[in-house]
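Table S2 (continued). Query chain:
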Amino acid sequence: MSDLTLTPDSLELSGKGQSKPAGTWLARILFALPILGWLLRDASRGRDNAKYFLIANVAVLWALAIYFFGYPAFIVIELAMVVVGFVWIIAVCR
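Corresponding output:
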C-alpha cells in the first residue's frame, strides 16, 4: 500500500480532474504575468513568510519609482488611496 492520497490538486495535475483551472479569472490573469505573477502566486500559495517578501518587494519598487520619477510616483499612489478611502467610507455608511 502507498501513503499517497488523491487530492483535487493532484487530480488536476494528472489530467483526471476538472478541465477548468481553480481560481477566479482575475487571479488566473494576474498569475499569468511574468514577474508579478510569480510573486503573487508565491505569496498566495507559498510559505508563510512569502507574504512579507512580497510587501518588501512592493515597498522597494515604490521607493525606486519615487527616486527615478520623483513626486508623480508618490502622488499617484496617494490619489489611488483616496479612492480606496472613499469606497471604504461608502461601504461602512450603508
